[in-house]
Design brief:
3 helices, four-stranded mixed β-sheet, 44% helix, alpha+beta
């Protein structure tokens, strides 16, 4: 789901559907409480709590959709929220794994970017990087 090519990570279906359902239910509940509620303190309090959960679910949903990595045209593309990095595969010096994050370093030793190790389909991306001769630590 939401793949960017043949060699790509993707958004996992079950957490995505759960988060969309939670956001829709909380958003609908909050709107109904504010519109149809009697205006007493309890309905306002419940509406505010549902609005907070809706905003949290929307933020999680946005992070789930934008956390990705894919290989295309000889380049590794990494993205998370509003940070997008692209590096040519020939310019990658090494990849280090630590704390469920793959950190990508250039040939000069500078950190280029990172990839979440728990993404669905990360194995395909790592296999292609290994096939291209990238060194792993």
């Amino acid at each position: 789901m939401f793949r960017h090519g043949r060699i790509s990570t993707e958004t996992d279906r079950k957490p995505f559907i759960f988060t969309v359902t939670a956001a829709a239910a909380c958003g609908t509940g909050a709107v109904l409480l504010f519109v149809l509620g009697k205006g007493d303190a309890l309905s306002i309090f419940a509406g505010v709590l549902l609005s907070i959960v809706f905003l949290a679910a929307a933020a999680v949903l946005f992070a789930m959709v934008t956390d990705r990595a894919w290989i295309g045209d000889g380049e590794l593309h990494m993205g998370y929220l509003f940070r997008n990095k692209t590096v040519k595969l020939k310019e990658i010096g090494k990849i280090r794994y630590k704390d469920d994050v793959y950190t990508i370093f250039g040939r000069d030793g500078q950190e280029i970017g990172s990839i979440n190790a728990k993404l669905t389909g990360i194995g395909r991306v790592l296999h292609e990087l290994d096939r291209q001769g990238v060194r792993f630590e």
